[in-house]
Amino acid sequence: MVNEKILKIRKELDKLDVYLLEIIKKRSNLVDIVIKNKKYKKDIVDKKRISIILKEIKKKSLKKKN
After folding, report:
1. How many CA atoms lie within 13 A of 40 on its CB side?
2. Three-class SS state of 49
3. Distances (CA, A) of 23 to 6, 11, 28, 39, 59
4. DSSP of 3-22
5. Inter-residue contact 35 to 44 (CB < 8 Å)
6. Rounded Cα–Cα distance for residues 18 and 14 (Å)
7. How far apart are the first and last CA of the chain?
8. Sorting pLDDT into bands at 50, 70 and 90, what band is 14?
């Protein structure tokens, strides 16, 4: 039998999952808009921007660990 504390935590996780899904959907919609506004197909993947974003995510992630 699952205890009440676990059930409460699972409900919070479910809420968080819904929130994350909404954020991902909003981001996807914005990406679609950016793609539609790109002049050339080769411009769709911006390796420089991807690199910058990944570095920022890593930096923020390391800060959160402290």
Report:
1. 3
2. helix
3. 26, 19, 9, 27, 21
4. -HHHHHHHHHHHHHHHHHHH
5. yes
6. 6
7. 36
8. very high
Position 13 scores a pLDDT of 96
**Count of residues making up the chain:** 66
pLDDT at position 5 over 90: yes
Which residue is associated with the tokens 């923020």?
60
SS3 39: coil
**Rounded to whole angstroms, how far apart are CA atoms 11 and 31?**
30
Which residue type, as a one-letter code, is found at position 19? Y
44: tokens are 């769709």
Quick check: 38 and 44 in contact, CB under 8 A?
Answer: yes
d(CA 46, CA 62): 25
